[in-house]
C-alpha cells in the first residue's frame, strides 16, 4: 500500500457535443467496467484509501464494537398475523442475514407471540434462511418474498452481485422443496392469483427499466410464461401487486409525473387487464380496492392530492371522499373492511388519519414528541379492526405499535432494544435532546432542520456536527433513530438533517421548487442550513461535515463547488456527480425515466445549460475544497461507479492540494454491503473518517 494517490491515465479524451457546446472528458475511459486497467485503478484507489486511513483502524474497530455491543444480535421481529399464521423474521448472533419464519396461530391467541431474547418461537416453521442462501457469496439480497394466499407457496428472488437483477423461484412450503421452474433477470414486484396457481412478475428492458409484467403458472418452465402487459413509453416503469383484499392484481404504471393503473381479477388470472383511468400527462393517481369501489388518491386539480372513489366493477367518474387541503399532503391510503387509514404529512411531520366506513367521523392519531416519524407497517389482513404501525424519532428507537381502530387504543408491542454502551450504562433518551430549527434560504424561504445531540452539548460553536441532506424525488428525510449514530453523539458530535427543497417534507410544492429548472434551490437551501448552524452557535464551519448519498451525493458535489468554505469534510456515498453525462445517455439505466425529474438536456438547450452549470463533475475548479470521502459500489446500476471515480480524479487534477479518497465496494450494489456486520463496518469506516475530520478521533 502507498500513501501516494494512484496515477490516472489521461487518455485520448471522449468528445461530447450538444447544442453547440463541446466538452472533452479525459476520464471517460473509467466507464469501461470490464477493462483490466479500470479494475486495477479502482484497486489502487482502495489501497490508497486504506493507507491514508490506516491510523483510524483502531477507532473503526471501536465504533464497530460499540454498534455490536448496543445491538441485540439475536432478535425477533413482532410477528404479523395473516390468516392462520404469525409471520416474523429472526436474527442470530454471528449471522449476517435474517431467518424468515412463521408459526401457526393458536386457539384464542390474539396478541402476537413473543420470545425471550429473540429465541425461536415454539413450533416455528423456517420459510427461508438468508444465511444458507448467502453461503459462498460475498453479497446477498432478497427481491421478492411473497407467500401465496393459501399459504402453500413462497415466491422469492435472490441477487448475489448487487445489480438488482433477481432470479425468481417458488418454494413449496408443505414439502420445503423449491420447484424446478425458475426465472432469471426479474425485478421487484410479484402478485399471486387467488387460487395460487399463477404468479405475476416484472422484468426490465435493455436500459434496465421495468417494462413488462409476466404471468407464470406454478410448476411450468419459464419459457411458457406470457407477457400480460408491456410498456413501450420509455418514460414509464411498471410494477405489480395483489390488493390487500386479494380481489385484484394491480399493474401500476408510472412516470415521474403521470400514472396509469390496470387491474386483473385475481380469481381470473388469464383475464385481460382493464384500465382504471387512462393516463393524462401530469396526472398521478394510485388505486386501493375497498369493497364495491376503488379508492383513488390523485392530484387532478389537487396539488397536495385528494381522495376519491369509483366503481370497482365499472370504473368511471371519481367521486370526492377527502377534498384537497393545501399544505396537507396525502401520501397513501390503506383500506380495511371497516376503516380507511390515510398516511399524510403536514407542517413537516408525518401523520395517520382514520376514517370509519359509513361515518362522517375521522381523526388523526396523536403522538407526543415534537419531531417524529410514523407510518403503517405490514398489515396484510383486510378484515381487521387493528393496524400495525411504526414510530421513531431522533431519540426514540424504532417502535412497533398496534392501534385499535374502534377503541383508539395504542398498544406498544415492542421497542427496538438498545443495549448498554461502552460505559455500561443503559440507553436513556433523556440523555439526548432533539430540536427543530429553521434556516432562511437565499430567496427568503424558511427551511426546516432537525437536530439531535447529547444533552448539555455547548451552543458556543465549539461542538462538531454532521449535516445530512438529500432533496430529490419528493423523498422526505424524516427523523430516524440510529444505534451507530450514538457513537458520534456520545463523542460530542451534533447530527442535523436539512429538509431542503426537492424533498417532500412540506408538500408537493416543496418538491416542485427543487427540481427541473429550480434544482439549484436544493443546493442553496443546504448551504443556508449549514451557514445557519454556524450562525446559531451549533457548530463552526471548520467542525462541520456534510453527508449525502445517491441524489444526496449530487448535492454533496454541488455544495463542494458552491461553498467549499462551509465544510471541513464531505462524505458522498454512491454519488450522482456526473449527472449531465448520464442524463444525456438514454441507453443508461433510468435515464429516460429521469428526464421528468431533471429535464431533458438532449432536446432542450436551456436544460442542458442549466444542468451543466451545477453538475459537480463539470464544475470542478482550482479551489480549496474540503476533504472528501467518496464511497461507491462496482455493481451499482442506479449510480454507476465511474461517476465518483471520475470526480475524484478531476478533483486531484484541478485542485491537487485537497484530500480526496475513493472507496469502492468491489462486490456490492447501490445499498453497499448486504450483510448487517459488513454494513456496520462500512458505517464505522465513514464515522471514523468524520471523527478524524472534526478532531474527535
Distance between the termini: 23 Å
Largest sheet: 8 strands, mixed
- Number of contiguous helices: 12
Which band does the percent of strand residues land in?
25-35%
Rounded mean pLDDT score: 96
**Count of individual beta strands:** 38
Query: How would you sum up the global shape?
Result: globular
Structural class: alpha+beta
Which bin fits the share of residues in helices? 10-25%
Gyration radius (Cα, Å) is 25 Å
**Widest sheet: strand order?**
31-32-34-33-35-36-37-38
Low-confidence stretches: none
Tell me about this structure.
The protein has 697 residues and is α+β, with helices and mostly antiparallel strands. Helices cover 19% and strands 34% of the residues. 45% of the residues are buried. The strands form 8 sheets. Strands 31-32-34-33-35-36-37-38 form an 8-stranded mixed β-sheet, with helices on both faces. Strands 8-9-10-11-12-13-14 form a 7-stranded antiparallel β-sheet, with no helix packed on it. Strands 3, 4, 5, 6 and 7 form a 5-stranded antiparallel β-sheet that branches. Belongs to the peptidase S9A family. It comes from Micromonospora tulbaghiae. This is Oligopeptidase B. Serine peptidase. MEROPS family S09A.
What's the gist of this structure?
The protein is α+β, with helices and mostly antiparallel strands and 697 residues long. Helices cover 19% and strands 34% of the residues.
